[in-house]
Automatic annotation (TrEMBL):
GO molecular function, one term: nucleic acid binding
Upper taxonomic lineage: Eukaryota, Metazoa, Spiralia, Lophotrochozoa, Mollusca
Organism: Elysia marginata
Protein name in the entry: Histone-lysine N-methyltransferase SETMAR
InterPro entries documented for this protein: RNaseH_sf, Transposase-MT_Hybrid
Lineage top rank: taxon: Eukaryota
PANTHER family: MARINER MOS1 TRANSPOSASE-LIKE PROTEIN (PTHR46060:SF1)
Amino acid sequence: MSASNAANQKAVDKMILGNRRIKQKDFAKELEISKERVLNIITDILSYRKVSARWVPRMLTDEMKMQRKTTCDELLKRYEEEGEEFIQRIVTGDES
């Protein structure tokens, strides 16, 4: 059985979504596979990369794109209903 099997891929993805700051050695310990195999799953198979000590997807999935479109549509609708008052209440910031 390969250490890069679908079950391990799904487990790694779930662990990343649960804690984006999880360390490679924690994956390896939990799944009882090598750190090298974990890195292969994360970077080559799941297409994540490390940004500011967090694992983030390299590319947006169709689901992520749809979620962003829905959010934008909702914000636009609120702006059309509430006008400048809505804009004044928006707070922006950097995740880091």
